[in-house]
Design brief:
InterPro entries: ABM_dom (IPR007138), Dimeric_a/b-barrel (IPR011008). It holds the Pfam family ABM. It comes from Kinneretia aquatilis. The protein is an alpha+beta fold. It has one domain: 2-Layer Sandwich (Alpha-Beta Plaits). The chain contains three helices and four strands. It has a four-stranded antiparallel beta sheet. Strand 2 and strand 3 form a beta hairpin. Helix 1 packs antiparallel against helix 3. The chain is globular. 19% of the residues are buried.
């Protein structure tokens, strides 16, 4: 299992709309991806325009090759991308 962590910064004042959009994008797009296990979104307290998206994938390639290289990625970005203040910072982790 691989954990993807995306550090997302959105435009000020867009929290409610972004939260609705990201939940919609997870339910309608990401959940359909090969190797998707589960997702969770955390909102920053000190930085209210900052969110952490955590997605569990079966393999690294399920995210980097199948999802990012397939038709679901543009659909996902069309839903959440307009809210981004900057490109998300994405890293992958594995359990020890």
């Amino acid at each position: 299992m691989i954990l993807e962590v995306a550090d997302i910064r959105i435009q000020p004042g867009q929290q409610a709309a972004f939260e609705a959009a990201i939940q919609h994008g997870i339910a309608s797009v990401i959940s359909q991806a090969q190797g998707f296990i589960k997702a969770q979104v955390q909102r920053g307290i000190e930085s209210p325009e900052r969110y952490l998206l955590q997605i569990q994938w079966a393999t690294l390639e399920d995210h980097t090759v199948h999802f990012r290289g397939g038709p679901l990625f543009p659909a996902w970005r069309a839903i959440v991308g307009p809210f981004f203040a900057e490109p998300p910072k994405v890293e992958h982790f594995t359990a020890i």
